[in-house]
């Protein structure tokens, strides 16, 4: 629920840059928040997490970090985490754990075209992907056995889909569809990309997973059916996850809000990021009822870390998403507007977008346009 | 193992057009097989399967069909199956069941650019996706409970990854990488799309699924490591499934052979199909040690069924794949060549590729070029 708060409340924000370029883009996002002329005051708390922290201390996510976030913070910004491709004893991704610990049940990922970007795709898009963030295969309930007959290994993972989790993330999707529509209505018609009724596309694979994805599909559909009046203005459609990837590539302009179980959402949002030219511009917010954590969709990018050339846009937009979901819509729009200006002028861009500017220069440019 | 058979053996091929456009494209593929001037003789057996058959008889896959295929056929061609988006009591996809019954453990999906196709993608590609075809979430081991505390439903699915299945499909990937290379070597260098060492890309998500995808990853890597000499000429790399979709959209030219667990393979192959302009040109073969079943990747397309405008290319190429995997490489290349000629001339194309020709006209054009 997005309302514009007018009180100059102080927000305590945990900063978890974690690994690699997280350490460059989170400070950039922090500077943008600090430079806002209206809205809340900020108090920042620096917190440890990540693979490098694990290598130093044996813990990827210290209990202290969790406690701070839970007991003292209104929100957080997470950078990026390195994950070794091979199994490292005792290591488990802190971002997945944080989503669970803080019950951040929806991962909200807006993806929209960057006109200046060189991309293999020639079509424009402006979609909001809402990914269920707590269950599916991400519950990490796995085990391995040895087949006594053959001596060969067999591994199992549990995929969980609950009515409870599907319903709340479904409600988020329909609510966000209405919110997007009301923000669109505030723009002149010529500037609106989406010209249809708001639309929620439910992604599933219930032709194979009739029980789990069947429950997902029915529950999300139920959100609209049981609130027929409230959501009368929102169209509902469905796509099998394989067809979704196909259609997203061929007609990305056909999607407004897309809601998906955890793993499908993970895959789809990377696909959508490719369509706009760079993961470096795609933000996300991990949203719960009492906490929001902004997180750029990109990874820790060890190959470019420490060079001051990482694109800070995804992190800055994640800070704006954080504001938006904490109720500061006006300030969020200010940040989005400043970023959009820099991207559309296309003179100050990092290398991922074909430019030659640094992380600091792009950040400065955004600050100037605030 | 692809060897060129010289004996004019008779192959008994089961035809399962199933639903929708399957009934138009399978006869097209049959005509192409019948028109080959060399290679095996064919005997075709018409077999029932599909959603429409289920609606008439209560069975989507009659035992008789399975028995015929198992006991009398050398291979089969499957059309496409309609799946209702909602659960229909007693109905379950016959294609998934056939893969299991016949132990067709690899789904081989070559995807390559169609120069004439209008696609939002500007990059060329020529990759072979090998999808594990028997396990992962496709084992359909699911159940639903009611949480006694909340009265809400919770559903569970099992994901199975075995060393046995991972190893045989991994071996298929490395072998196909060598086969592709040897076919490339027979072409003049200027006509070879892939100019690097043969490459196998292993898709996984072991940063989250460390046990199941960990086992998958290690086992497929092990295929190369344990046959170091045999596969010395093949490079091996890995991609997380989300990054895979990202990279595939941005640099599809970077992939040669891609091997993936069942669900990831399903999603990736639809994505790759989008990149070449139409699902209507992408074939597959379900390959086991003793049986091969060709199957176009597209669905039953009820919207265009019965209009004689479905693209027969995917089915015709699937027939060629069938030949290839039954050992008739020369005849397979003949069919591929005829199809490629029609596509590159680009005067006789179905509507999915921007043309105005019919299924029959495209089929005739292929026959003329055989
Ligand atoms: C790092 C990884 C565990 C994570 C995920 O799969 O959720 C990432 O891919 C993301 O999308 O945030
Ligand atoms: C129809 C469906 C069960 C099938 C699958 O998911 O395997 C299809 O999408 C495919 O790719 O062959």
Automatic annotation (TrEMBL), chains A, B:
Coiled coil: none annotated. GO terms for cellular component: mitochondrion. GO terms for biological process: isocitrate metabolic process; lysine biosynthetic process; tricarboxylic acid cycle. InterPro entries: IsoCit/isopropylmalate_DH_CS, IsoPropMal-DH-like_dom. The keyword Secreted does not apply. SUPFAM superfamilies: Isocitrate/Isopropylmalate dehydrogenase-like (SSF53659). One of its GO terms (molecular function) is homoisocitrate dehydrogenase activity. Keywords: Magnesium, Metal-binding, NAD, Oxidoreductase. Residues 12-366 form the Isopropylmalate dehydrogenase-like domain. Its cofactor is Mg(2+). PANTHER family: DECARBOXYLATING DEHYDROGENASES-ISOCITRATE, ISOPROPYLMALATE, TARTRATE, HOMOISOCITRATE DEHYDROGENASE, MITOCHONDRIAL. Belongs to the isocitrate and isopropylmalate dehydrogenases family. This is Isopropylmalate dehydrogenase-like domain-containing protein. It comes from Umbelopsis ramanniana AG. The lineage of its organism: Eukaryota, Fungi, Fungi incertae sedis, Mucoromycota, Mucoromycotina.
């Amino acid at each position: 629920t997005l309302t514009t708060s007018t009180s100059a409340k102080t927000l305590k924000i945990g900063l978890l840059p974690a690994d690699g370029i997280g350490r460059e883009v989170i400070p950039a996002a922090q500077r943008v928040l600090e430079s806002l002329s209206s809205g809340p005051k900020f108090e920042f708390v620096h917190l440890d997490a990540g693979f490098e922290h694990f290598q130093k201390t044996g813990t990827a996510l210290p209990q202290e970090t969790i406690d701070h976030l839970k007991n003292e913070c209104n929100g957080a910004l997470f950078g990026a985490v390195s994950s070794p491709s091979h199994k490292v004893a005792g290591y488990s991704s802190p971002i997945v754990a944080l989503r669970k610990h803080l019950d951040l049940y929806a991962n909200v990922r807006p993806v929209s075209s960057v006109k200046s970007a060189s991309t293999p795709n020639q079509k424009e898009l402006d979609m909001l992907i809402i990914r269920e963030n707590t269950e599916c295969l991400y519950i990490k309930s796995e085990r391995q056995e040895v087949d006594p007959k053959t001596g060969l290994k067999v591994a199992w993972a549990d995929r969980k889909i609950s009515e409870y989790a599907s319903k709340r993330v479904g409600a988020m999707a329909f609510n966000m569809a209405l919110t997007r529509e009301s923000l669109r209505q505030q723009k002149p018609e010529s500037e609106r990309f989406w010209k249809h009724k708001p639309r929620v596309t439910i992604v599933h694979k219930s032709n194979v997973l009739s029980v789990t994805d069947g429950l997902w599909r029915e529950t999300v559909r139920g959100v609209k059916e049981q609130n027929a009046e409230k959501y009368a203005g929102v169209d509902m459609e469905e796509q099998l996850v394989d067809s979704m990837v196909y259609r997203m590539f061929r007609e990305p302009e056909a999607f407004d809000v897309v809601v998906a179980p955890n793993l499908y959402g993970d895959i789809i949002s990377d696909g959508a990021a490719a369509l706009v030219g760079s993961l470096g511009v795609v933000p996300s917010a991990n949203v719960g009822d009492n906490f929001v954590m902004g997180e750029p969709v990109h990874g820790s990018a060890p190959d470019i870390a420490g060079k001051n050339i990482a694109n800070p846009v995804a992190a800055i937009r994640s800070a704006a998403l954080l504001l938006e979901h904490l109720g500061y819509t006006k300030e969020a729009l200010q940040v989005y507007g400043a970023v959009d200006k820099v991207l559309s002028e296309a003179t100050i861009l990092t290398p991922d977008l074909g430019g030659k500017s640094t992380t600091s220069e792009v950040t400065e440019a955004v600050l100037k346009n605030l």
